[in-house]
Structure formats: structure tokens, C-alpha cells
# Entry
Amino acid sequence: MTVTSRHQPTGTAGRSSPGAVLMPSEGENMSTATEPSAPRGVFRRFESKFPRGLVIRLIAYLFVGHLFAFFVYLLFVLGGENQ
# Structure
């Protein structure tokens, strides 16, 4: 009966530091590396914290508020020229 050892060699291949970046091996494509899709997770987390209606109202209020501020600014600029 033969006993085989399952441990890694004592080189650096078996070790990984906490901040190490794992690169795909030579035959592995970069797109097959398992990375989470960041935008989809960010949007899900964003929608879970803020309902869609709130976000739409916030954008609308910001746009209308800036439009009103521009109108008031324009009134002062045009009113100042007539003096």
C-alpha cells in the first residue's frame, strides 16, 4: 500500500497573503475568472435602501429646484441691467 502526500510544496505557490490578487493561470481566460458583477450588486443595494419612487422624486426636485434657481438668477441679472 502506497501513501501519497497531499500537502503543497514549500514554495510560494501554496501560500496566499490576505491582500493577494489572484491572476488566472496561463491557460485560463480573464473572463472566466470568478468576479462578482459590481454594478448589479450596487444597484440592488441602492434599491433596497431607497425605493424607486423616492429616487425619482429626488431627481425631479433637484432638477426643478435648479431650474427655479436659474430663473431667479436670470431675473436678478436682467433686472440689474435695466437700472
Observations:
- The radius of gyration is 29 Å.
- Residues 52-83 form one domain.
